[in-house]
Amino acid sequence: MLNLLGLDAVAESVYRGILDRPQDVDDLCDRLKLTEKEIRDALDRLSEMALVRPSTEDPGQLHAVSPHVGMEILLARQQAELASQKQRLEASRAAAAQLILEYDDRRADAGSAEAGVRYLEGIDSIRDHLAVLREQVVRELLTFAPGGPQTQANMSASRPLNQQLLERGVQMRTVYLDSIRSCTDTMKYVHWLTEHGCQVRTVPSLPNRMIIYDRKAAIIAAHTENTAAGAMQLTSQGAVTTLHALFESVWQSAEPVVRQARPTPGALNRQQAEALRLLAQGLTDEAIANRLGVSPRTARRIASGLMDVLDADSRFQAGVHAVQRGYLPSTPL
User: Fold this and answer.
1) Which of 26, 89, 180, 327 could make an SS bond with 186 (beta carbons 3.0 to 4.6 A apart)?
2) How far, CA to CA in Å, does 166 sit from each of 173, 185, 282, 307?
3) Where does the chain have alpha helices with state H?
């Protein structure tokens, strides 16, 4: 149950056992039906996490910190920043933004068709076209899925379609936002996908909604703020190659959904680091909420938390402190 917080099953059972009452290694072996080595290895891990210590009342017994304090300790260990991957991700976002800018106003006329661009207007047109492409895909389907937690309607509609693709042997890789990890229903769906062979990873934010079919065609949203308004199909080799490179770059920096890296104590977590980067770009709370796939209220809470972490009284001061502590570059990327 606590594996997402870095605590394996054996260590968790030992921690729970000590919570019931302080006891020594022999008692734990008898009660939990574990070997002495398993108990001592688990105690070493729990001690490293500051979750157990010798009892002050009886040094021969073990004492577990309260669940409230213990969970705070585990959550604190999850705070980290994967800063080494940010510069590459930024370069990829810039390339994607340039490509989207070049084609945003294109339409499916004769000229654009020859250039490998087809404009799809309206959600019904987009869905119909996606259905055709799904029937044609043979080897690989790559997807950026922004927007945070998925709706029940979307997951119910997608499940049989994805199952058909996976049963046909199509290799699927999907990148969601980190914010889905807090949604139980979405995570159940994601685990269902992984059990059926789909590879899933998450990142703090995504530049746009995108699907790449067999590296021959790509669909991107025409408007990042309203992905249902329209979409573009790109089939020119240069455009598809660029978008595929973008996907692979983001994929390499993304975190597998089945495990999440243990952050360095005291560092920002991935969502906080991304929110800080967006704040430094001057985005509003509403725009940041959209990029992170969370509510505006949650975005404001994240921003407020950053102010506390950075010991700042204003967003300007937070930016100064972030640069001083190495969370942001001293010059814009």
Assistant:
1) 180
2) 11, 21, 42, 45
3) 9-20, 25-32, 36-48, 67-77, 86-103, 110-114, 123-136, 152-167, 184-195, 237-253, 270-280, 285-292, 296-309, 315-324
Burial grade of 291 (CB within 10 A; 0-12, 13-18, 19 or more) = buried
Q: Write out 232-295 in H/E/C secondary structure.
A: EEECCHHHHHHHHHHHHHHHHHCEECCCCCCCCCCCCCHHHHHHHHHHHCCCCHHHHHHHHCCC
Give the integer Cα–Cα distance in Å for 118 and 4: 43
**Model confidence pLDDT, tens digit, residues 203-242:** 988 888 999 999 999 999 888 777 777 888 998 888 899 9
Is the pTM for the entire model greater than 0.70? no
- Domain borders along the chain are 3-77, 84-256, 270-324
- Say if residue 109's pLDDT is above 50: no
Spatial neighbors of 71 by CB under 8 A, at least 6 apart, are 5
> Which CATH architecture fits 3-77?
Orthogonal Bundle (1.10)
CATH class held by domain 84-256 = alpha beta
**Is domain 270-324 classified as CATH 3.10.310.10?**
no
What pLDDT is stored for residue 29 in this prediction? 86
Same fold, 3-77 and 84-256: no
Tokens coding 143: 């997807």
